[in-house]
Amino acid sequence: MAAVLETVEQVKLIDVDQYKYGFVTDIETDKAPKGLSEDIVRFISAKKNEPDWLLEWRLEAYRRWLTMVRPEWSKVQYPEIDYQELYYYSAPKSTPGPKSIDDVDPELLRVYEKLGIPLREQEILAGVQTSKIAVDAVFDSVSVVTTFKAELLKAGVIFCSISEAVKEHPELVRKYLGTVISSNDNYYATLNAAVFSDGSFVYIPKGVRCPMELSTYFRINEKNTGQFERTLIIAEAGSYVSYLEGCTAPQRDENQLHAACVELIVMDEAEIKYSTVQNWYPGDSEGKGGIYNFVTKRGDCRGRKSKISWTQVETGSAITWKYPSVVLRGDESQGEFYSIAISNGRQQVDSGTKMIHLGKNTTSRIISKGIAAGRSDNTYRGQVSAHRKATNARNFTNCDSLLIGDQCGAHTVPYMEAKTSSAMFEHEATTSKISEDQLFYCQARGLSAEEATAVIVNGFVKDVLQHLPMEFAVEAQKLIAISLEGSVG
Amino acid sequence: MNAIITPLKTAAELALIQQFIAQKAKLSGDAATHAMREDAFAAFQALGLPNKRVEHWHYTDLRKEMRFIQPLADLPTQAQIIEAKAALAHYEGVSLVLLNGAFVPELSNIADLPQGVIFTSMADVLGGSRPDLLQHLGALDVAKGDHALCLNAAFMRDGVVLELADNSQIDTPIALISLCSKGLNVSSSARSLVVVGAGAKLTVIEIHEGGAECDAQVNDAVEFVLGADSKVEHIVRQDMAKRTLYLATVTANLGPKAEFNSFALVQGGGFSRRQLYVQYSGEGAVAGLRGVTMLKGTQFADTTLIMDHAKANGISRELFKHVVDGDATGVYQGKVIVRQHAQKTDGGMKSNTLLLSDTATMNNKPELEIFADDVVCGHGATVGALDDELLFYLMARGLPKPEAERLMIQAFLGEAIEFVEHEPMRDALNAEVDAWLSER
User: Fold this and answer.
1) Domain layout of chain A by residue ranges
2) What pTM was estimated for this model as a whole?
């Protein structure tokens, strides 16, 4: 099929060495001493003037982490990480905390300019940038600036760095932090709980539809630094927010560690749409360097008719270990997961989702597309489970994989667990399949098989990309730079 | 979740170690066999009983389930043989009978074996009569290190060995019947081997029954070696008593263009697991694994398979249908591996489940592991209840509800049973489904 060939050719053209965000910025930093210990945890906490309860929470996580072993069940291989060789805190000296844009080091602003992230509100308002997005820019361990805070606050929306939220809204942070991903959830989440440095905090009050897209842009710059951010988003009853995150890092020979946690909490009839374009440095074509991306993302649909939608475009990282999940606790809640994961060079991806159906009449939908090229391995791993009381739980899962070249691997590992007869789970995974019915339908209307295929695939891919906010969809398309049409054909 | 677990041996694991040390000298076999037993047991000891942390046993916790170890079965007594004879009365055709893991010539009709089939007892092979056959045991790469197979190799006593000469076309099915005596609390490990020559054709029927009024522990294995262009149809009926802990492993090594079709009807055992390992050692081989599992009460049944496409142009098809009622739990784990050089592989896997009660559980894990780019592989899995609309349609046409349900379940299971080529057996399997449904 022509579409397949086209994709094959275009993916071949993408050379992993052509990572365009690989530049390093020379900026003076304030670092914690190297290594990990209780003192480092205290150091980070003190740097941020945190209350005692948060320090205790961190220390408890740290002590628990010491008793844990790293998970081995995923299809990724990497050497033992020496946690004492890393820096756990690094902040640009010139910008100790999030301030107004005028106080930010111009050098830092230039970094974000180079990355194409609009931070100057005036420019955006003056129409230099066409879209209006509020951005929280996280550089190594700290948030350097958050834009449009004032305007958002008018609508009652709190959007700031999590360190700031700890100071300004301690009651909200204390109430919700760690309630979705507990401080001892898994190896990397526990490490994150102990040493997390910054991240975003979003609170959407009751009945508010967030007036603009919110986004966070993560940049790892410093050498040998781990980035451990923690994001917490709370959508009160009847509210809506769309949140995007983007990530890049300089090209370095050593592997760098990124272990993040994202917690989403959604109340009655509220909705969070969370989109990610992950473009960490993937390492060179021989597998040297690159980011180890171990991320725990989980959303909790606490309210009735609540909804969480995860959309991800994963193209970077040497290793991706990431399973954005939804706990469907509220009756009639909905979970969605749309993913495009592309691996090339020596990248290893083990990603997917978990849909845990607990409430009645809950529905979930999983669409995953994996494209493996070069010498990479691309695994979809997803769990769908229905609890005994989750009557009428519905799930539909579709994962398609495309292999380009005979040196790579594409794997599918779905787990389906039904404990109630009224649950209806459907799963399909293919390397090449378009529903016969649809083909027949199109062909019966006069299209050739080729055209029919193109129409169906086009419609399907658009459906996935449509779940990304407009501005991101364009960026994602550019980033992928291949015709997705071929991945199904 | 990830806290360090100190590898303490469970009581059952310790009992197995003691049993092996105490019994190994008494177990049959020459030096080569004993070396094989020692290696297998050492491998098992390193692994321990499998639990949910072992990915291949993700839903089946044998360590938790196997709390004690039954003593090894002795050779059957005359009384047990007489009892078995009565149970066998309704079987017709050529049958080779194992009782509590030992081959019993007086229950079998070796003389009726068709021309071209050579029979040897596994005890003889283990004793050193045929080193060329012994080398086939546990030889399959994809099954190496399997917990159940290692345990079987350590304790295997006897079994049936069949050899089929090149180009022999055997139309008469040969039945391997494994029985367990009533009320006998023992463990048994039978190992059988079927070596099929190039271009030959054979139908093997496996029947597993018995073990009433006791807590028998059975760990059987059958290994198939298929020569080029050969064809084997393998049909299994597992109807062990409800308290039996039953493990069964089937391995198949497929030569070029060999065809292996295996079907299993599972309805017995309290806690059972069927493992299938198929390795494509030659190009263009075809395998079809299918099965029907019907569970009720508190039964637990696991079907786990690995298809290893190591050579190009292979075709594999899996179709498994589960009907789970009461508080029962079904497990299906299927893994299709396509190695780098296995281009043009065509793999299709399907698992469908009907949950008939609100307390029934089904766990599904259909995996694809693909390293070749020019392949067509897919899998589909569904879990659900009987379709209300179809039920309504049938009832609107005057069928009472139980009858309508029965018809739908029959049709659902029939989709898998119709792949059984041997007609009388297909009818017998359908009849068994009917009987199971009548008891519902």
Assistant:
1) 2-487
2) 0.85
